[in-house]
From TrEMBL:
This is EamA domain-containing protein. Residues 145-274 form the EamA domain. InterPro entries: AA-Vitamin_Transporters, EamA_dom, EmrE-like. It holds the Pfam family EamA. Its main location: membrane. It comes from Ruegeria profundi. The keyword Iron-sulfur does not apply.
Length: 280
């Protein structure tokens, strides 16, 4: 029961990132550039403090930082800007759908050949994403926002794959946040991002960085060793559902039938691909 509660709390933290980001940008409390920078800075501070209390060290001078921090910056930038036009639930669905599909594709190419069931699951998941994103009549999903969130999903998938070889997950994550901070800020400045943040915007970004990102990632690394890989993959599929419910209840977003059906296809396809059926 304790493991279940900790895992559920972690998934709620992941979904809260989408809700907090969308809330800050949609209300005008923050611009995407400021939110991303403050979020990374807050996460770096909290994770560094956790490493310091554990009497660990930050491996800043490490080859893993190139890939880890680069992928984290890609995720943060795409994630923040995409929520200018995407609802919280739709953004989370695209993000975690792309994450799982990317990780499945990479492991299929670098590892063993995929089975027919896994291929079928991937095709169903892709069809679900296409169904949600395909423009029909007055229902239009912003293509720029979708592409940015897709890039964020690829970045998070790359970050997760790189983290498999990290000897100290918490220290490595803290180092990635620190190195990613100037990369994220520089990329947003080059892209012409403007710094417009109110007190509420700073508060939402700090909560997203320090609590739902920093503490959420730390909690995830705590429960991850206790979960088998397939379970760890499947439980993340709950994040879009939580984000959709949170967007409806807290942000007044509309969960259309199209979004619900698409989410069911994406989550069902990914579950079919990653779950291992036990023979009778």
């Amino acid at each position: 029961m304790r493991l279940f509660l900790l895992t559920a709390l972690t998934m709620c933290a992941f979904a809260a990132n989408s809700i907090l980001n969308r809330l800050a940008i949609d209300t005008g409390a923050s611009d995407p550039a400021g939110f991303a920078v403050v979020r990374v800075l807050s996460g770096a501070l909290v994770l560094s403090i956790l490493v310091w209390f554990r009497a660990g060290h930050l491996p800043l001078r490490n080859r893993r930082r190139i890939a880890g921090a680069g992928a984290l910056s890609m995720y943060m930038i795409g994630f923040s800007i995409a929520y200018l036009t995407l609802d919280a639930g739709l953004g989370a669905l695209i993000l975690f759908g792309v994450v799982q599909i990317t990780m499945f594709a990479v492991t299929s190419v670098t590892g063993s050949a995929p089975t027919r069931r896994q291929i079928a699951g991937a095709v169903i998941a892709l069809a679900g994403l296409a169904y949600v994103l395909w423009p029909v009549g007055a229902v239009q999903v912003d293509p720029a926002g979708s592409l940015l969130m897709t890039a964020a999903g690829i970045g998070w998938a790359a970050y997760s794959l790189v983290g498999r070889s990290e000897p100290d997950a918490l220290a490595g994550t803290a180092a990635n946040f620190i190195v990613a901070l100037p990369l994220t800020a520089l990329a947003l400045i080059v892209a012409g991002g403007e710094w417009r943040m109110t007190g509420a915007g700073y508060g939402l970004a700090i909560v997203s960085g320090a609590v739902t990102s920093g503490m959420g990632y730390a909690l995830w690394y705590r429960v991850l060793p206790q979960l088998v890989p397939t379970t760890a993959a499947v439980v993340q599929l709950s994040v879009p559902i939580i984000a959709i419910l949170g967007g409806v209840l807290l942000l007044g977003e509309v969960a259309s039938l199209r979004l619900i059906l698409g989410a069911a296809l994406v989550l069902g396809g990914i579950a079919l691909a990653v779950l291992r059926l036990r023979p009778r």
